[in-house]
Amino acid sequence: MSFEEFQNCARLYVIGALEPEELQDFEAARKLYGSAAEDFINQCYGLHEAFALSLKPAKASNAIKDKLMSMVRERGQGQSGPRSA
Amino acid sequence: MTSAVDREPGAPSDVDLMLGIQSGDADALSQLYDRYSGIMKALILRIIHNETEADDLLQEVFMEIWNQAKNFSAEKGKALGWMVTLTRRRAIDALRKKQAYARAEERLQAEPERQPLAWVQNTTEKDIEAGDTRVLMAKVINSLPEAQQQVIELAFFQGMSQREIAFHTNIPLGTVKTRLELGLKKIYDGLKELRDEL
User: What's the ipTM?
Assistant: First the structure.
């Protein structure tokens, strides 16, 4: 797989649109191209950002925020930071 | 570009807020919510099309951001990209559960075929003139041929595989792949250009 073909696959990979049978070749090329491949994949994750930023922001509820912050502060009382996954 | 949206001078960057969250600062999460909840909710709504479910999911997503913040690394990418990836994954999971339920209820067949939505909704001339990041990205995406927008819409916002898109649209698999590759490349190049300008 040429690097250009790898780049095309990487853009599909980050949005989860690579088919299972394409994954094997993709992973082989990823290994072959090493850090250049990893850097490119990281850059491709910017596509997610692009899609989100193209949307008109929706009105988020204050009640949801209040509930969220209450849950976070409640949990925080028993520990010093976010819990481990 | 330390933040993908406009912020007050002197306001903490996205990375500062993520570091704050990593150290257990609830106020950092509060600020991150104020900055990005609108974008995250728009993304969720675009995928699951239900206001109440979107609110519930938004709360879950920010709770997950709080819990998973330790997994964020500024060296690997931007905070917004990380949050969007997480939000999209949760929303598509929710969509799939809904679809599975609908299939179980044998209602899917009765549903009218869903046509992909126009990519950017409610974009006005005023928005275009505003020239902010969102509008610039929307322009890049809107400049794609409709056929490319359609397959990208189905892949990104509906979480469909190439095969599922081919089945859903009656387009040959090879054509779906080509359209996806071309469309994503144009968006990627547009994003890169935008970043270079900022």
Answer: 0.80
